[in-house]
Amino acid sequence: MSENMINTVPEGTKKAGEASSDRRKFLRKSVALAAGGAAIAATSAANAGDGLKTWTTPLKNEPTRHMLGRGVVSVPYGLPSKYESGVVRRNVGWLTADTIASISFTPWQDLHGIITPNGLHFERYHAGAVDVDPSKHHLVVHGMVKQPMIFTVDDLKRLPSHTAIHFLECPANGAMEWRGVQMDSLQFTHGMMSCSEWTGVKLTTLMEMVGVDPKATWFYGEGTDGSALQRSVPMEGAVDQHGRPIPPEYTNHYRDAMVCYAQNGEALRPENGYPIRLFIPGFEANISTKYLRRIMFTDKPLVTYQETRHYIEVLPNGMIRQYDLVNEANSVINYPCPDFKLNGKGTYEIRGIAWSGYGKIAHVDVSVDGGKNWKQANLVEPVLNKCVTKFTLPFEWDGEEALIMSRATDETGYVQPTLKQLREVRGFNSIYHKNSIQVWKIEKTGEVKNVQIENV
Amino acid sequence: MSKSKMSNWSLGLAAAAVALTLSANAFAFDAAALKSAPKVQGVGMNITDAAIKPWDISYFYDGTNLPDGKGTVSAGEKIYQEQCAMCHGDFGEGAHGYPKMVGDPVDQFEASAKAGVDAVSNRGLNNTWGNAPTLMDMIHRHMPFYAPGTLTTDEAYSVTCYVMNLASIPGVGDDFVCDKTSLPKIKMPGEPLYVTNSGPDTANQRCMKDCYKGTPFVVEKAASIGNVSVGKVKAKDTQ
Fold it and tell me: What ipTM was predicted for this assembly?
């Protein structure tokens, strides 16, 4: 077996009966699959044209060849081609009681880079998207400060600016997959994450202006929408409501925080908090308050309903874990994925995205045999802090069943866990922070399915 | 105290030791973080606390900043039936997919979690809610859902009182009066279960070759999953 080839003889699938455990009596079928047969990277270069069919019909001009097209500004704000009308945000009707307190998903299966176009950024509302008039909007910064201050949006744009590309991810990304396979689409397994270039004022600039009391250990932002959403953000020395310390790896994220007014170079969209939002890179998105109107510095957390009822984890020991704030390293292959069907054997490029709330992606490894053997993928520049990183790896599909998966390692050395590892510590009662390795199964037909490997 | 609670407390104490070691300036934010912040002047306005007050609507878990006023269970029942029951159920059981007020009793909730059976869909004020003042904050800020922030202070106190009574929160009898002094004294049943996260909890290794022996047990989605599935967005041939 050559160094750049991972190949085993496929044995096809065979029934292995239902899952043994009662607690996993879910509506699904189970099969045992022998290691798939597919190679990462071609083993030898073929001669030009070898093995391909031949086109003999004389070529015809397309209709566009003999007509005039549209003039400039016929579409003053440009739109995608009508042939791309399927590339849209989608929601899952049964997931929430209505579309007002709900979520939609980014179609990563149709994206080719690291930036999410603004119209495709996932949405998460607690009381719907609102249209806030920027000429009447203000931001108040107060609490444990020397001088409480108030800013207009224009004031904020006048201050020294900061621009950075970061992902933003709802911690419920992948939540529907905790208990078993549910969603046969990448959009629904990983679409609660988007990545944009954000521009605004660094929080530390505002902290300096108001003179934050050195005894402050927390702050929170609050929105001006119906939910007036608020979340407590720890700083160095933060302790929880019982006096227990917040881990040090969570207490420095605020240093990168900003009050944003722009996203991918244009004003924030109403869906994403226009005219201004808080943004804390690496943290679960719920903490980055949209429609921001107020920041208060304190020496204790609020313990809001978001922190006591929603964004918690019920652990297998019966305890309820709070303040799980960082989105840890995660990755997924977005080509091939269940939203596409492979068109015959031969060369493909495995492509995917990786991200970590702790920093840069260090490595992404890819397996096509269910995780027995792995090969390091190419990282596509730029590789940035708390940002989606694209990876690629040549893939030679032999037409047999294959289990393809990616595994990210970030610069702290943290390695993306398997689903089994995650369930061992979090159990089956979790909703949030499901960052386990995603497995896609390529069928002989070329169809790609969402599957889970339970035993390793 | 159960063994599991003990171990979580121990973890908390271990984490405390780490924090004290790593942070030279424990229990205060690191002012060095501001050293690189630019010095600016002439931008923005100073504002008085009195001017901020209408926006200063956050009630902390310990009751800090709770407003004057009061509410009763009986007044809350009337408001709840008119403005809340259509979503949260006549008896707090939830309706149309909106949250329950009354979940499994906390002992049952904890047992379910330990047994690996569904506990999260049975969340309610009687299991996953740490502090009564936070409930007042939520109701006054965000409820009723279709007209957020429209309850008066007394109405919000009353609804807070009624839903705690509905969820059989100890101490909140039919004659209980909710105000800024009484709410912080309520012991919510789930409060002792809360622990604080202590950082990454998995430790996968970056194995590259022959990472396991045997056959992967692959689970697929069942065709019979019915309305739980939305299926594929599309399956188009690659070009």
Answer: 0.88
